[in-house]
Amino acid sequence: MLISIGAYKIRNQSKYVMFAFLIYIANVYTMHRARGTFEIIGMANQAVLPITTYLLLCLQDSKKELLLYHITKWFGMILIPGMIIYICSFFVNLPSLGIIQTHYGGDFYGEPCYNYLFYLKPITVGATGMFRFNGPLIEPGDLGCVSAFLLYATKFDFKRFKYLWAVLASLILTFSLAGYLLALFGYSAIMMTKNKFSSKKLLLGVLVFSAVIAFGTYYNGGDNYINHSILSRLQDDELAIDNTNGRISTQKLEFFYFMFENPSVLWLGYDKATISFINEQFGAGAGFYNQVLNIGILGIILYLLPYFYITFKSRDRRYALLSLVFLILYAYQRFDLFWISLILCYTFGICLNDKEFELCKK
C-alpha cells in the first residue's frame, strides 16, 4: 500500500497537499502571465505536476529511498554509454541517428545536434570553443545542475547508491561552472550536517582547488578544457555574463534595472508583447534575472514559496536550511524550479533526512 492512512502519514499528507497546492498556484500564475487569461483546460493541465508530486511524496519513506535508488541507477545507466560516445567522438567520426533540432519550448530553439540517443552532440561548438558533455539533455549546464542535485539528495553516498559514480563523472565532463559550484557547496553542506567539516578537509579542498587552477592556467599554455570552460569564464566579463547568471545579456540587465523605476512592472513583470520583443532581440535566457522580467517579484515569491514551506516544516532544520540555500544558488543560474527531477531530489532528500534524524533521536 503506497499511501498510509496512519496518523503519522495523515499529518505528513496534509503537508504534502499544501506543498503541491503552492506549486499549482505558481503554475497557474505563470500560465496567466504567458497567455493573459485563465483557461479551464490550461488550469487542468497545470494540475498534473502537483498531483504527481503529491502522490510521490505520499510514498512510505522506504519506498522513497527505493525510488531514489532506481532514479540514480537508471540515470547512471543512461549516462554511461553517453559518456563513452562523448569520449570516442573526439577520436573517431561516429555514425549518428541523424540530426535533430533541439527545442526549449514555445518559440525558442537550440542548436541542431547529432543524435546518438544517449548523447546529443551539437553540430557547432559553444561559446567556450569546446564540446562539453550534456548527455541526452540539451545543455551541459542542465546536466551539471541535475547531477549536483542528485548527488546532494543522496548525500554523496556512493556505497548505498552504487551508480552515483556515473552521475559524478558526468558532472565532471560537463565542465559546468554552475554544476561544479553547486556540487562543491552541496558536499560542504553534507559534511557540516554530519559534523565532519574539519580544518584538514578544508585545507585539502583548498589544495585541490589550487591545483585545478594551476593546471588550467599553465598546462599546454592554457589551451585546455579546464581553462576554456571554467577559468576563462571567471576572467572574461562578457563570457561570464552569458554563462554564470542564466545567459542574460547586458541589454536585458538594463531592462531589469529599469523595473525598479516602475513598481507595477517590478511586481508583476513586463507584459507579453515587451517580453516577446526582449527575447527576440536578446535571447530567452534561463536564470533569476530573466524570470523577474517574465513573472516579476510576485512570481519569484510564488515559485520559492513551496520550497520555503516544505523546508520550515522539516524536523532537521539545519539540513533543510542548507538545502534551501543550495536551491537558491541553483535558482540564480537556472530557476527551473518545477522540474520533477529537481522537486523529487529536494523533497525526498528532506524526507529521508528527517527519517534519519528521528532515528538518531531515539
Give structural notes.
This protein has 362 residues and is mostly helical. The chain has a domain of 120 residues. The protein contains 16 helices and three strands. It has a three-stranded antiparallel sheet with strand order 1-2-3, with no helix packed on it. Strand 2 and strand 3 form a beta hairpin. The chain is globular. 33% of the residues are buried. The N terminus is likely disordered.
Write the layout of secondary structure elements.
Layout: H1 7-35, H2 40-45, H3 48-57, H4 61-88, E1 99-105, E2 108-115, E3 120-122, H5 140-153, H6 164-174, H7 177-193, H8 199-218, H9 225-235, H10 237-244, H11 250-258, H12 263-268, H13 272-282, H14 288-312, H15 317-333, H16 340-361
Antiparallel strand pairs: 1-2, 2-3
Task: Determine the oligomeric state from the structure.
Answer: single chain
What's the mean pLDDT score? Answer: 80
Residues in helices, as a percent range: 55-70%
> Strand fraction band?
under 5%
Keyword list:
single chain, 362 residues, mainly alpha, 3-stranded antiparallel β-sheet, 3 strands, disordered N terminus
Summary, kept brief:
With 362 residues, this protein is mainly alpha-helical. Helix content is 67%, strand content 5%.
